[in-house]
Design goal:
The structure holds two protein chains of two kinds. Chain A contains 20 helices and two strands. Chain A is mostly helical. Chain A has one domain. In chain A, strands 1-2 form a two-stranded antiparallel ribbon. Chain B is globular. The chains are: A mainly alpha, B mainly alpha.
């Protein structure tokens, strides 16, 4: 059957768009902006079309396509999307145009726009790659635009932040690359075929020791990106020093590459090792939840506060992922998307505040509610969603994660739940500091959100409410893929056994023991 | 009376060497006979043409070997195989790029243009001879042709004391290493009874080597000679000083040509003549590779001078190339071929940009000189950023594919710790490259640095060569299949 190549189109629009914007921008910076908006709008249209064309109750990969690429190295250009990656692609398509509309970096914005588009293309490519090396390429490629976004358009300590981010991620990727290669050669030794296809490598027989090492190598790379405690040290600095648009993309989209990578690759390729490592990872995730929450309470800088709060949220996502329960995994995927929406809204709002008042510091910001009521209202909704108020989108994922984790790993869920309480505390406290109280003279003159700004944030706000009220829309599409993923994990024979190939329902061998 | 038995010579197979060597000699004669000094443009054009001639004849040799299989000529002293043809292609490209990059520099510095080109062409022919040598004595000849010309090239900027110092240092240490290398040949000859690579490997295969101690001593001395030439740690001490002191275009040429020649010969000797001794040389190469990877990357971070930093970067790259040798498989050799080609192009262009920035007297390549370059000259800044990121090994550049294929080869061979060390060293090196990139995009401190290089930034031929290198770096980074296959086919036709 010949279907429309949605995924290829979704890759091509931002990548070619980036080139085109770069070229046009040399002559006409204004035209570049229009072009960048047009490209991202087109990307969003095709992403929505993909959502419409996506078959709801199917758990397998859809729109799969494979082309030869670097045949001598065994690398193929293999794409596909399932319920897990679908919404991350949509998130990527949604956030970038909002970033372009809602943030500015002054007159010379061509580079900014081109890098954003390239980042979008690389992110989409990472989410839809079914070849491990193609994924690695895209995963690494995201570093370059992120680096330049930070180093060219960031705040005072941008060079330090950008370099720290790049080097830490690159070091993590070094382990990932070697891990991928070891896995591919294990597969080659067993089958005689050198390939990096996820579907093929899934059936590699690994000794349990090797599987644990490989799993760790993958975890380090994804753990830096996500970030998982204690690999998070780049994130507060980087989120703080990046331009607001950069922080939005970094936290909303790029951080998801890490959590997505764990879900997609660690769980699929090393199901048993993942179970072996689960206590370790769950503990780190729980520490992340608490550490993030407690550290966030002590921040004076709003961007750093959101950075630490993100660390806590990512902790929840990891918790759900390693609960190995359907609710936990579904919750993790839901949370990736919802956290993306919420955190993007946060960073944009903080950027707007700083634009008007020139500071991210809660010691300076006071009594904003009076002069800017609409901004305060939007901030309130975003904050409540982040706290996990039922009826808003943040609640759905967090709730599912906690239920899922509770059924399989009770005590970790209990510990993490305290994180929810602390989150409510520091976010409300922060709100109180910034928006309540008496405004000083300079704050009094602040103007409220313009119509353009209202329209820019409206989609995010609408989604916060819609996905909170009617999460079924997402869950219906995510659940089949999650079940397939879990079936693969439980069906895989213990790592030491020889038989791992195609466990069928009729076969008594190799089932769950 | 017996006739003097002359060996049959396949001139077609020698064409790349002859082009460069005779091209150099002819230029020397021409410039001596000419009444007026030859115009710089003429000489550059001539050099580029010679380079193209060598390139075409190398490609022809490659095609010929693909059909007829590998052979040897001149009484089996020279190998006619895919490997030497691929190296000849690389060296020819180096010659073309280096000629273009030096053009404006020689004019600015008022250096006698023919002198530079004669020496560069001769030196390049030495690199090809090293790669094609099927006999240790011929290899030594190639090594000396390459090196002696390089010693002189390093001293070419006679107005600079640093340049003289660099040349002298290079010459003395190089002389030492040549002597050690020669000892290695003698010992090997003593143990195996021949200097011919096939005869050596046959003798080793039959297990009839007379004196194992002598043989191992020979192997060790040969390795030291090679490690010196390719600047592996701990034989690298000359590298930063020479790279810093030599005229910048010469540094670029040296980084490319000497590395290509040295590694080509090292690969051939270890993998075709002495594979039986791999249990002896693998641990040595392994540990030197580890030291080179780590030493290069770590020392790179603390440099304040762009040329010194790139010198350590070249050491780190040498470490990666050694990793390919540890793999000791055809995948490892073809990975190294790919690496040598792409690194040469990237390094030449990077030094090309440094040449533009090194000031009117070519005596200051401090990192501060690059401050804000991308703001003042976006195109050059972008080219430098791409080249640096390529050297760092970022995807969609040749640098990544090169590192990846080397790592793939060594993981396939089973040396996982070495792969991890290599990638970790790359991550350390990234820090240094990024610091340089961040300097390019700095907004403050631009005015405090004396930027006296505006006229050198309008150097047409150099700009063309840099642009071409950037295109090559990105194109083969995205579509490497053709180039990888080229290397693979070359290795498939390696003279056994």
């Amino acid at each position: 059957m010949h279907t429309f190549p949605y995924l290829v189109v979704l890759l091509c629009i931002p990548l070619f768009g980036a080139g085109l914007v770069g070229l046009v921008g040399l002559r006409a910076p204004q035209a570049a902006r229009v072009l960048a908006l047009a490209a991202t709008a087109l990307e969003l249209v095709f992403a929505v079309a993909l959502l419409v064309a996506f078959k709801t109750h199917v758990g397998t990969f859809q729109f799969e396509s494979t082309h030869t690429w670097m045949a001598p190295l065994g690398i193929s250009f293999s794409l596909g999307v399932d319920g897990i990656s679908l919404f991350l692609v949509l998130l990527t398509a949604l956030i970038v145009p909002i970033v372009i509309l809602g943030t500015s970096v002054g007159e010379k914005a061509t580079g900014y726009l081109a890098w954003l588009l390239l980042l979008q293309g690389a992110s989409v490519a990472s989410f839809v790659s079914l070849d491990l090396m193609l994924f690695f390429f895209a995963f690494e490629l995201t570093l370059v635009p992120s680096y330049f976004l930070i180093v060219k358009y960031g705040h005072e300590r941008r060079a330090y932040a950008a370099t720290k981010f790049f080097v830490m991620t690159f070091l993590g990727s070094a382990f990932l690359l070697v891990g991928i290669l070891v896995l591919a050669f294990q597969h080659q030794n067993q089958t005689g075929v050198l390939t990096f296809s996820l579907a093929a490598l899934q059936h590699t027989t690994l000794s349990s020791g090797l599987a644990v090492w490989l799993s760790l190598a993958f975890l380090v790379a994804f753990g830096v990106k996500a970030p998982i405690f204690p690999l998070h040290t780049w994130s507060p600095t980087t989120y703080r020093e990046a331009p607001e648009g950069g922080s939005m993309v970094l936290s909303a989209i790029l951080a998801k590459l890490g959590t997505y990578g764990i879900l997609r690759f660690n769980l699929t390729l090393f199901p048993h090792a993942s179970k072996t490592l689960a206590p370790l990872v769950l503990t780190l995730a729980a520490i992340g939840v608490l550490y993030g929450a407690i550290t966030a309470s002590g921040q004076h800088d709003m961007k750093r506060l959101i950075a630490y709060s993100s660390l806590a949220q990512v902790g929840f996502i990891i918790l759900g992922t390693f609960s190995f329960s359907p609710q936990g995994l579904t919750g993790a995927v839901t949370m990736m998307v919802n956290h993306g929406i919420i955190t993007a809204a946060f960073f944009m709002l903080i950027g707007w505040i700083a634009q008007r008042r020139g500071s991210f510091d809660t010691a300076v910001l006071k009594g904003l509610q009076g002069p800017v009521p609409v901004l305060a209202g939007v901030f309130t909704v975003t904050m409540l969603a982040s706290i996990g108020l039922p009826g808003l989108n943040g609640f759905v994922g967090e709730f599912l994660v906690l239920i899922g984790t509770f059924t399989t790993h009770r005590w970790w869920a209990v510990v993490a739940t305290t994180g929810v309480v602390v989150a409510a505390m520091y976010l409300l406290w922060n709100y109180q500091q910034v928006f309540h109280g008496k405004a000083d003279a300079e704050t009094e003159t602040m103007h409220d959100l313009t119509t353009k700004e209202r329209l820019t944030i409206a989609p995010l706000l609408a989604l916060i409410v819609l996905l909170g009220v009617y999460p079924k829309f997402m869950l219906d599409r995510i659940e089949p893929s999650v079940h397939r993923e879990l079936a693969g994990i439980t069906a895989a024979a213990p790592a030491t056994a020889i038989q791992t190939h195609h466990v069928t329902f009729t076969s008594p061998v190799g089932g769950a023991r | 009376m017996n006739h003097l038995a002359l060996p049959t010579v396949s001139y077609a197979a020698l064409a790349p060497i002859l082009f460069l060597l005779l091209g150099g000699v002819a230029l020397m004669v021409l410039s001596a006979l000419s009444r007026r000094p030859l115009a710089a443009g003429t000489v550059t054009g001539y050099s580029v043409l010679i380079g193209f001639g060598a390139l075409i004849s190398a490609l022809a040799e490659y095609g010929h070997v693909n059909g007829a299989g590998p052979s040897s000529t001149v009484a089996s002293a020279i190998a006619v195989d895919g490997f030497s043809a691929a190296i000849a292609v690389t060296v020819s490209v180096v010659v073309i790029l280096a000629s273009l990059l030096s053009h404006g520099y020689l004019r600015r510095m008022q250096i006698d243009a023919p002198a530079y080109h004669v020496l560069a062409l001769t030196s390049a022919s030495g690199a090809i001879i090293m790669a094609a040598a099927n006999d240790l004595v011929v290899l030594f000849l190639g090594l000396e042709i390459l090196s002696i010309a390089l010693y002189v090239l390093a001293a070419l900027n006679r107005r600079s004391a640093k340049s003289e110092e660099a040349a002298l240092k290079y010459f003395i240490l190089g002389g030492f290493s040549s002597a050690i290398f020669l000892f290695g040949i003698a010992f090997t000859y003593g143990a195996t009874g021949s200097t011919n690579l096939q005869v050596i490997t046959r003798t080793l295969g039959e297990g009839v080597a007379a004196k194992p101690g002598l043989l191992l001593a020979g192997l060790g001395l040969l390795l030291v000679g090679f490690f010196f030439k390719v600047a592996a740690v701990p034989f690298h001490l000359w590298t930063p000083d020479v790279y810093e002191g030599a005229p910048t275009p010469v540094t670029g040429f040296m980084a490319a040509a000497a590395k290509v020649g040295g590694f080509a010969a090292l690969l051939r000797v270890l993998l075709t003549a002495m594979p039986q001794l791999s249990t002896n040389w693998t641990p040595v190469v392994y540990s030197v590779a580890v030291a080179t990877l780590i030493g290069g990357a770590v020392l790179m971070v603390v440099q304040r001078d762009a040329k010194r930093m790139l010198a350590y970067s070249s050491i780190n790259h040498a470490g990666f190339l050694l990793v390919g040798i540890v793999a000791a498989t055809s995948a490892g050799i073809s990975a190294d071929l790919f690496y040598l080609f792409t690194y040469s192009v990237t390094a030449l262009a990077t030094f090309g940009i440094v040449t533009m920035l090194a000031g009117p007297r070519d005596d200051d390549a401090g990192i501060d000189r690059l401050s804000g370059l991308a703001r003042r000259h976006p195109a050059i800044g972008a080219a430098m950023a791409i080249l640096l990121l390529a050297q760092a090994g970022v995807p969609f550049t040749t640098g990544f594919i090169a590192k990846f294929s080397v790592i793939e080869a060594v993981v396939g061979h089973g040396s996982i710790p070495l792969a991890i060390i290599a990638m970790a060293s790359a991550a350390v090196a990234v820090f240094a490259y990024l610091r340089l990139v961040a300097t390019l995009y700095r907004t403050e401190d631009i005015a405090t640095v004396d930027l006296g290089y505006d006229d050198s930034l309008t150097d047409g031929p150099a700009a063309f060569a840099i642009g071409l290198s950037v295109v090559v770096t990105i194109f083969f980074g995205i579509f490497p299949a053709a180039l990888l296959d080229f290397g693979r086919t070359a290795v498939a036709h390696l003279l056994p």
